[in-house]
Amino acid sequence: MRRLIGVAALLALAQSAAALDLRESWNLMQFQGPTFLSAGHERDAALENRAIGKSGLLPKIGITAFDNHINGTQKQPDLYGNNHTNDLNYASRGATLQLRQPLFNKQKMAEYRQGQYQADYGNAVFDGKAQDSAVRLAGRYFDVLLAHETAKLAAAKLNALNEQVASTQRRRELGDGTVTDVDEAVARRDLAQAELIEAQDSLVVAGRQLQEYIGEAPEQVATLQDNFPTPPLQPATLQEWIIRAGTDSPSIRARRLNVNTADEEVAKAKAGHWPTLDLVLGYTAADSETLSTQNQRNRYTSAGVELNIPLYSGGYVSARARQSVATRDQAEEDLNATREEIISGTTREFRSVQSGEARIHALEKAVISSERSLLSSKKGFLAGSSTNIDILNAQEQIFTARRDLFEAKLRYLLARLRLAANVGALGDDDIESVNGYLGPSLSF
């Protein structure tokens, strides 16, 4: 995944007094979001597998020291069969420095290769989690925008229904309206009041869920601009996107590296049948006393090779090898399953982008048609060809169309981000592109 945002951008964000937008939310999440930081620590831990795997091929150096005091008695017969008792009271101390270097060890070689794969796996997992976090962040951000728009429309709907209630009551007082018209308007108004309360609760919850990702509560956010272009996808065909997903998807890369790691686990298990050869160098320094020697001092070095040939381990090595082969086969099937899942997800998001564009255009027309329908219903009511219920239905339709249009735009942008994430290409440019659709400021 391409590197996303530097420290300078974070400092600029801290100094900015503008409303929080998607790009700045992404900066904040990388800087202090616990979900993103957790993924970074997981990657750092995985990268240490390189050093861990390499360590098995490097020499091991250690020192063994001892300091013993012998205190006791010794009985020893002489030439005539008489026992003589001698007191034992002396010290023995020393240290040994040893270096051991593997010369031939197939298990350590497999662990070295396994460490490289595990580190690469950690990078792939981090790439996937980072891009998934970006998509989830966008989803949380868009939830705030949708909740705010829903609350705003609910409030406007309530005001319109209050006016309709007042209008029907005046008409009834003048003898033109009916009790049924008043009751219907009041019922719609009361329902709108309940919808507004629910929308306001949803807005509070959406704001708190966004805070989970960015680490602080936003005071203002940027919402959608009126201008909403829908450029064509690049590449333009589904097959090209599927090919990119098969090669660049972090999830597929991670599964492929997991298979490689499992292969090395098989090699490591089978290496239990092979001998090992080590170079061993040592230096010993010891001071001791015995009954026959006083202040004995030993200083010597040693050099040699040590061969270890396994003969029988109770069937452990063979069983471990069979277990590793089964685990490797499982990893291969997990790779196949992930590949199919990514292809399905890429297909779904590709179709969502294409159909989302058409749905936006259709809903834009629906909003215009609903506004005309409301105007016609009001004129018809004055002319006697429409009823109060027709006006209420037209008002309901226009607010529903406006909300559906706003939601369709958010879903379209989210689908573009998900499509990019599926193929492992979600980066700064995608975040910035979606951020370009934002502008007006909203306050909580």
Automatic annotation (TrEMBL):
InterPro entries: OMP_efflux (IPR003423), T1SS_OMP_TolC (IPR010130), TolC-like (IPR051906). Residues 1-19 form the signal peptide. The keyword Membrane applies. PANTHER family: OUTER MEMBRANE PROTEIN TOLC. Residues 151-202 form a coiled coil. It is found in: Cell outer membrane. It comes from the Bacteria. Gene3D superfamilies: Outer membrane efflux proteins (OEP) (1.20.1600.10). Keywords: Cell outer membrane, Coiled coil, Membrane, Signal, Transmembrane, Transmembrane beta strand, Transport. This is TolC family outer membrane protein. Belongs to the outer membrane factor (OMF) (TC 1.B.17) family. It comes from Pseudomonas serboccidentalis.
